[in-house]
Amino acid sequence: MPAELLLGIDVGTYSSKGVLVTSAGEILRQHVVPHTVSFPAPGYAEQDADAVWWADVQAIIKALLSDGFSGEDVAGVALSAIGPTLLPLSSAGRPLRPSILYGVDSRAQAQIGALEAEIGAEAIFAHSGMSLTSQAIGPKIRWLREQEPEVWAQTATLTTASAYLSFRLTGRHIMDHHTASHFMPLYDPAPRQWTPEFAVPVLGDSDLSRLPELGWSDERAGTVTAEAARLTGLREGTPVAVGAVDALSEALSVGVVNPGDLMIMYGSTTFFILVQDTPTPDPRVWTVGGAFAGQHNLAAGMGTTGSLTRWFADEFARDHSTGEAYDTLFAGAATVPPGAEGLLVLPYFSGERTPINDPHARGVFAGMSLTHTRDHLFRAVLEGVGYGIRHNIEAFRDLGADVRRVVAVGGGAKTRTWLQIVSDISGEAQQLPETTVGASYGDAFLAGIAAGVLTRADLASWVRPADMILPTAALKPDYDRLYGLYRDLYAGSRDVLHALQGQNSMGRS
After folding, report:
1. How far apart are CA 177 and CA 198, in angstroms?
2. Which CATH architecture group holds 5-246?
3. Which fold has domain 256-434+472-509?
4. Are the CB atoms for 422 and 386 separated by under 8 Å?
5. SS3 state at 299
6. pLDDT at site 218
7. Rounded to whole angstroms, how far apart are CA atoms 421 and 308?
């Protein structure tokens, strides 16, 4: 019997997930492996590529291919992962340090300033279609070169999470165009290739050989090597797709592939992908490549959303297990009136990405009184995220982007209370798909294309809508007023929040 099953794996911020799927989109098996993130210093976020990413992938494949399934059944594999991340590799292809994570890691602010001074902020935007922010990898490469010269001296390849995992399976260094777009200013989105134009300020020379090959997410990166087959149980020679950043695979998993489709991914962070036929560059957001050849995406991302609710549960619901804590908190928040009876939260607990692009922003609880309870505080946290989501959607529309359909995905999208709050605040209806497995499901589809089992047109039979969250019209005036106060709160407290960043080390010896 020929191999016909598809295997998709996504490595997220706090867990990795894999699915085994038929070519018709039927999920046969799922497996999840939790893991942690390291925060070695304020503004730093790191993860170990082998002990976390690769170990998770091996564990997931072995779990999926046990008890009746084997590598002989798998027609294709695709992986996605958090991104963009920066991982330096030796000439032997081994990590030289923990990976520096995406926009939640804001260590390279000095390097952003240096690159803007040397190249020019306007020149960078004109070249890349984006401004330098904590999401950009170019400044982090320069940080590595300046701050860890001993690592830099050994660096033969500069890669990212999904590309590293593809390399571990195939032995080939290749990165998808969407992720490469964030390696600015080393990537030129017009010819869609690496460019030496601004390489010297970033790399110290014009040698681009440290950068991987480029490909589209549904293209074939290679096939499983004998060594990878030995470590995973996959069949040697199994096709492997180029893969993608997790958010892009998540969008694919719910059919966000047509111009005007907007995905809101409720994860540890909240990520937005809007499919476009013509790009609309703007400094507030990110203009990047899509999953398929010729596609454009307008992308955006908040810094702490699901990770904020996790922090709240860990700190203020310690008397419950994790699952019980969330159930209790969301049930309590549902009993609190809209507006949390005068509470307002800025959800910038690790700085904020789009649209304010302020790594020095921090969280604020405003309007607290002795009458407020834990339920009020949690309701205000959920509403704070809702205001941030509205802020990003407004930024898209302000720059002339066409938003026609909003699809909600991710772990947070399983909570009706939160989705209703976001729709009420933003005024946007949110469509819920029938299957919301996540990015790994989109990866399985990419695996099918790379293996020649599927075509892009087959996605229509994989994805079906299930429900729609509609905004409550009667709440619009109150939430419009509170949204204005949310914007004012940040503008009025920004200087204080920035000044407080210098006080982090007070009292430490």
Report:
1. 18
2. 2-Layer Sandwich (3.30)
3. Nucleotidyltransferase; domain 5 (3.30.420)
4. yes
5. strand
6. 95
7. 16
Q: How far apart are CA 305 and CA 70, in angstroms?
A: 38
Nearest to 296 by CA among 306, 285, 305: 285
- How far apart CA 347 and CA 463 sit, in angstroms, is 32
Picking from 388, 209, 219, the residue whose alpha carbon sits closest to that of residue 289 is 219
Question: Chain-centre distance of CA 488, in angstroms?
Answer: 28
Instruction: Evaluate whether 5-246 and 256-434+472-509 have a shared fold.
Output: yes
Helix, strand, coil content of the chain in percent (nearest 5)? 40, 20, 40
Domain ranges of the chain: 5-246, 256-434+472-509
Q: How far is Cα 391 from Cα 211, in angstroms, rounded to an integer?
A: 35
Mean pLDDT of the chain: 94
φ, ψ (nearest 5 deg) of residue 422: -65, -45
User: Per the structure block, which two tokens stand in for 145?
Assistant: 């070169």
Of 231, 258, 244, which is closest to residue 9 (Cα–Cα)?
244
Task: Please compute the mean of the pLDDT values over residues 466-474 and round it to a whole number.
Answer: 96
- Angstrom distance (rounded) from CA 483 to CA 425: 8
Q: SS3 of 362, please?
A: coil
Q: What pLDDT score was predicted for residue 509?
A: 43
Q: Are 448 and 493 in contact (CB under 8 A)?
A: no
Predicted confidence (pLDDT) per residue in 5-53, tens digit: 999 999 999 999 999 999 999 999 999 999 999 999 988 999 999 999 9
pLDDT at 194: 97
**pLDDT tier at 436, thresholds 50, 70, 90:** confident
DSSP 8-state secondary structure symbol assigned to residue 142: H
Query: Of the given ranges (342-351, 379-388, 411-420), which has the lowest mean pLDDT?
Result: 411-420
